[in-house]
Specification:
CATH architecture of the largest domain: 3-Layer(aba) Sandwich
Strand order of the largest sheet: 1-10-7-4-2-3
Number of strands: 10
CATH class of the largest domain: Alpha Beta
Number of domains: 3
Largest sheet: 6 strands, parallel
Shape: elongated
Distance between the termini: 65 Å
Helix content: 40-55%
Strand content: 5-15%
CATH topology of the largest domain: Rossmann fold
Number of helices: 15
């Protein structure tokens, strides 16, 4: 399946590896010049009539949205079916005493007053908001609404609209295996003049959520991701792990990014010990992120820094000492079971030691065979 994705991408590009290297280089340049790109986007977006807000984390982003809802006195609010919104827990905005809105997912033909969606990319030079793929219903909820609120992490910026089309081509080729995506929408601002469609006001909330600190660290390669979801669709282990989970569920790169951002936000991150990554090939990533290596490094750090990891290291050292001599291996089963209960605490199925030991059974077997031969 991995090979088929790369083959499909090769039909859309003259040189796939060159396109991947170019995309990775562009992401590197964006992250290194993020401050200037944010200022450029803010200026261009404001010229088109848009309003830009900033939020340090998801909690502040929800506060910004609540403020907009109160100002507009909206009764019906619709949230786009975008997996990018899961990071910010947008459904929590309804749990405020001053808000009694009906927050629900958009239904076809359902008229709403406020729409909330997520951006795949922001174009700095032209001040554009790009939405595609699973967030396609964001277009429906923006038509004729009082306001459309778009959330975007600060790393979603691109320099020009030409770069946007290049990344869209990579996303569709590596993620969907086709030349173009079904839904690609560019919002250039609120409704103006004789425009018949579009929101009366368009807000973009730029959210940091720990990304500025992550860029300064040594783990910033994970932020090259463009959310094509190729890692999810080509990993059979990942699909089997989530076979009983309703979509959308987090991709491997989303889970790894969430774990790293949690460190800078002071939150407890989800363990990655049982998260599959062994069958993720770097070739299937359009920006050449080595997810397998990043997962291994993160799990190694997690193991070394936890109490369980300390306990496991001592367990293996003790086992090495215990098993290096036969006289210790022949210790009473009761003592060995006590040691197993101590070191393997929390494990459902622990080995049970019984008497006689294998060496004792083997000696008895040889003794019986010797007696039989003498008889």
């Amino acid at each position: 399946m991995i090979g088929s994705k790369v083959y499909t991408a090769s039909k859309h590009f003259i040189n796939v590896e060159r396109a991947q290297r170019k995309a990775k280089q562009l992401r590197w340049e964006v992250l290194n010049n993020l401050h200037s790109l944010i200022l450029q986007f803010e200026r261009s977006f404001a010229e088109r009539g848009g309003k830009i807000l900033f939020a340090a984390d998801g909690n502040e982003a929800r506060q910004q949205i609540r403020k907009i809802l109160l100002e507009k006195r909206a009764r019906n609010v619709s949230v786009s079916r975008s997996p990018h919104l899961e990071e910010f827990d947008i459904q929590m905005i309804g749990k405020h005493p001053e808000l009694k809105h009906n927050i629900s997912f958009c239904q076809p033909g359902y008229e709403v007053e406020i729409g909330i969606s997520a951006a795949d990319f922001l174009v700095a030079e032209q001040g554009l908001v790009a939405i595609s793929q699973e967030a396609s219903n964001a277009v429906q909820i923006s038509m004729g609404t009082k306001a459309n609120v778009v959330l975007a992490p600060i790393d979603k910026l691109l320099p020009t609209v030409d770069d946007l089309f290049d990344f869209w081509a990579l996303m569709s080729s590596f993620g969907e295996g086709k030349r173009e995506q079904n839904h690609q929408t560019i919002l250039s601002g609120p409704r103006r003049g004789k425009d018949s469609e579009g929101p009366s006001e368009l807000y973009v909330i730029l959210v940091d959520n720990g990304r500025a600190d992550l860029i300064k660290s040594a783990d910033w390669e994970i932020m090259y991701c463009i959310n094509c979801q190729a890692c999810r669709k080509t990993s059979l282990l990942h699909q089997n792990r989530h076979s009983n989970v309703e979509l959308p569920y987090k991709t491997p790169v989303e889970q790894l990014l969430e774990t790293k951002l949690a460190k800078f936000n002071g939150r407890q991150s989800k363990s990655l010990k049982g998260y599959p990554s062994s069958d993720i090939d770097p070739k299937i990533c359009p920006v050449q992120i080595n997810l397998r290596e990043l997962f291994e490094d993160e799990r190694r750090i997690e193991h070394l820094n936890t109490k369980q990891g300390f306990k496991e290291r001592w367990m293996w050292k003790s086992w090495h000492w215990f098993a290096s001599k036969r006289s210790r291996m022949n210790t009473s089963p009761m003592i060995k079971n006590m040691l197993s209960d101590f070191f393997l605490d929390g494990i459902d199925q622990k080995p049970s030691h019984q008497s006689p030991t294998f060496s004792q059974m083997w000696r008895e077997k040889l003794w019986e065979e010797q007696e039989y031969a003498e008889d």
